[in-house]
Specification:
By secondary structure, the chain is an alpha/beta fold. The protein folds into two domains: 50 residues, no CATH class; 167 residues, 3-Layer(aba) Sandwich (Rossmann fold), CATH 3.40.50. Helices cover 49% and strands 10% of the residues. The protein is built from eleven helices and five strands; from the N terminus they run H-H-H-H-E-H-E-H-H-E-H-E-H-H-E-H. It has a five-stranded parallel beta sheet with strand order 2-3-4-1-5, with helices on both faces. It is globular.
Length: 243
């Protein structure tokens, strides 16, 4: 599958730094005195070779670098998010076969993004194609990207094995973008549902459908008829950690 650069916002230099950090921090590979990214792809130990493949898949999937080294075993937020993560990742082939669609709904800072990022990481490691993006990035790409890129954006959103859309919130859909959503975004999401291709969403509203108003609400309601919403009632655990 051809990937769209319009939906990938990872700085290449940061990705390369992450890969070099992996190799330079390895007791075995650090002895090779690797200082340039071009040197980091040959003669690595088995662990670094496996991690290098994983890192490149994370980068291709636009999983934000902050979450590459995190895992749900160390998660201190809502138990509901841990349950959702475990339920999905323990049988990814069934999740893919069933075409699961769900939305994690709750306030900021409770771990929704970390949860879907960790799910995508496991799917990447199982050789599924994945994409992390936001509703804002989708709308911007469909409005501002060159014509050929818009075609690739639609194809990738429709065909990627596991799609995660973060910040699925009304503030990213202006009145002027409502028609775009109805014409472009809704058919993509509906097509994924009809083809039973997994879709994960995160919303900062406890009730995502009620956050939208006007003509777009009908489109959102139609999409969410096929989506299981998991409300997460928790406080911002980042604030708790700082106390």
């Amino acid at each position: 599958m051809v990937r769209s650069l319009a939906l990938n916002n990872l700085p290449r230099r940061k990705v390369d730094e992450k890969i070099l950090s992996l190799v330079q921090g390895c007791e075995t590979c650090s002895k090779k005195n690797i200082t340039r990214i071009e040197q980091a792809y040959d003669g690595l130990c088995e662990r670094c070779s496996i991690m290098l493949i994983a890192y490149n898949r994370y980068a291709e999937s636009n999983i934000q670098i902050e979450y590459w080294g995190l895992n749900m075993n160390d998660f201190v937020g809502s138990p509901e998010l841990k349950k959702a993560y475990t339920r999905i990742t323990e049988n990814l082939s069934k999740v893919y076969g069933d075409g699961m669609s769900l939305c994690l709904a709750g306030s900021h800072g409770i771990g929704k993004t970390m949860t879907i990022s960790c799910i995508l990481k496991r799917a990447c490691e199982k050789n599924y194609s994945c994409l992390y993006t936001t509703l804002n990035d989708i709308v911007n790409a469909l409005i501002e990207a060159p014509y050929d890129d818009k075609y690739l954006v639609r194809k990738e959103l429709m065909n990627v094995d596991f799609l995660a859309i973060d910040e699925f919130d009304s503030k990213y859909i202006s009145d002027g973008a409502s028609d775009l959503f109805a014409r472009s975004v809704e058919p993509i999401l509906r097509g994924r549902s009809q083809n039973k291709v997994p879709l994960f969403m995160c919303s900062n509203s406890p009730n995502p459908t009620e956050a939208f108003k006007g003509s777009i609400k009908q489109s959102i309601d139609s999409i969410f008829n096929r989506v299981k919403v998991i409300p997460i009632l928790a406080e911002d655990f980042r604030k708790t950690q700082k106390q």
